[in-house]
Amino acid sequence: MPSSGQAVTIVLDEAEKLHMLHPGQVIAYTGPSGGRSDRLMDVKGMYRKRNLIRADFTGSCRFIASLPPGFNLMSIPIRGGSDLLYDFRHLFYYTDGIKMQTRLLQFKNMLITRDAIKVKFSGEGEIGILTKGAVVEMKLHPTEPLYVDARSLLAYPENAQLKLSVYGNHLASQHMHYQWQMTGNGSVLIQSGHDSGELEKHLQGDGLFKRVLREVIPFGGIFIK
């Protein structure tokens, strides 16, 4: 994971309008002074983004936005409708013409994932989604489950059947993060940037004997450093 953030350049044509949900990330701007207009978000937006202000940019203009360390920006065109559900916290910007509908997760899933709302996009335009690491697309099967680390699931079809689960034998299920067990039609988007740190420790020379002790001794991960 990089130690410093990246920057992205966004260019608008004369007739385009873009809503930036994290205006504090804009580090440079070129265009008419009136091309940017900040305003208070509605109550739903404030709650979902933990932010008060959004910035509306109107072309013709160009601006540069910085991204948090470890994050990338994925631009996704929306044409008509998309059946994918996203976490609203990952939304960085959206263009005029995009409509949003919210979907509530099941209560038991809210408690474990600490996530309550997903967003579905429709209309004509583009959205910018913050991602960690590379993004991989995987197809769902109506009956054969796909298991995805709950921290890595970026988007999934609204028709998908989800339940929190683990898999493998007893030892495997004890040493994995919660997984989404998923079936349905369509594809899911998975981001690869979540890391437990185990591989980095291994590459830095953490010995096999220590790793074995951490696994077999109760609370070994706490007492054996």
UniProtKB/TrEMBL annotation:
Gene3D superfamilies: Mitochondrial biogenesis AIM24
InterPro entries: AIM24, AIM24_sf, Trp_RNA-bd_attenuator-like_dom
Protein name, as recorded: AIM24 family protein
